[in-house]
């Protein structure tokens, strides 16, 4: 989509206050005799100035620096990590090695040590390697759980040992339940 079409289409997607703000901004520029905003970059700049706190990028960078895999799968961690450079607009200011270092720093220790053994040198290769390693690890865990025999459940054993001819009592010791069904007249 061309820059001009983006600028014409985007205001239609704005809602509530943002839509009102944009309409007022366009009207004000027209009254002042200024050219309408014609580039996507200028439009984003205007909206960011209005709606993002000055500390937004600093807070986002702090979150990125503290971001770790924790209990997330490697796929979830990779997807979330991949959002940060886009949202922080730091791809121009950070080297690929800095981004790789940040990614590795947040990984679980076992995956981190496996990465150093591999020779992945780009973010895409590291993403793929980590996801493969995590998949292998989760398969091993599933195989281990499946191979452990489980004892039969106690409720199944109780059913197998109880005789159907003996009367049964309820748990409240209120008497004997009927084992013969009632007949309907």
Description:
With 185 residues, the chain is an all-alpha fold. The protein folds into 2 domains: 3-51, no CATH class; 56-145, no CATH class. The chain has helices at 3-13, 16-31, 40-51, 56-66, 74-88, 96-106, 109-117, 123-147, 154-161. Helix 4 packs antiparallel against helix 5 (74-88). It starts with a helix and ends in a 24-residue tail after the last helix.
What is the structure about, briefly put?
With 185 residues, the protein is mainly α. Helix content is 64%, strand content 0%.
Search tags:
2 domains; mainly alpha; 185 residues; 9 helices; elongated
Q: Secondary-structure blueprint of this entry?
A:
Blueprint: H1 3-13, H2 16-31, H3 40-51, H4 56-66, H5 74-88, H6 96-106, H7 109-117, H8 123-147, H9 154-161
Helix pairs in contact: 4-5
The major pleated sheet works out as: none
Q: Approximately how much beta-strand content do the residues carry?
A: under 5%
Could you tell me the number of beta strands?
0
Number of helices: 9
Which of globular, elongated, flat, extended, rod-shaped describes the shape?
A: elongated
- Helical fraction equals 55-70%
Rg, nearest Å: 32 Å
- Low-pLDDT parts are none
Please indicate the count of domains.
Answer: 2
Content-based structural category? mainly alpha
Mean pLDDT: 75
Question: What is the H/E order?
Answer: HHHHHHHHH
Straight-line distance between termini: 80 Å
């Amino acid at each position: 989509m061309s820059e001009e079409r983006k600028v014409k289409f985007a205001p239609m997607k704005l809602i509530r206050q943002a839509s009102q703000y944009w309409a007022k901004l366009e009207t004000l520029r027209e009254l002042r005799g200024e050219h309408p905003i014609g580039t996507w970059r200028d439009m984003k700049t205007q909206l960011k100035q209005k709606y993002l706190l000055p500390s937004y990028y600093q807070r986002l960078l702090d979150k990125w620096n503290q971001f770790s895999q924790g209990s997330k799968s490697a796929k979830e961690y990779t997807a979330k990590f991949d959002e940060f450079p886009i949202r922080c607009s730091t791809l121009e200011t950070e080297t690929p090695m800095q981004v790789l270092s940040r990614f590795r720093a947040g990984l679980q220790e076992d995956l981190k040590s496996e990465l150093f053994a591999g020779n992945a040198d780009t973010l895409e290769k590291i993403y793929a390697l980590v996801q493969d390693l995590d998949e292998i690890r989760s398969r091993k865990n599933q195989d281990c759980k499946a191979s452990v025999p489980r004892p039969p459940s106690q409720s199944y054993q109780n059913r197998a040992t109880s005789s159907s001819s003996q009367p049964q009592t309820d748990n409240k010791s209120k008497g004997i339940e009927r084992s013969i069904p009632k007949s309907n007249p």
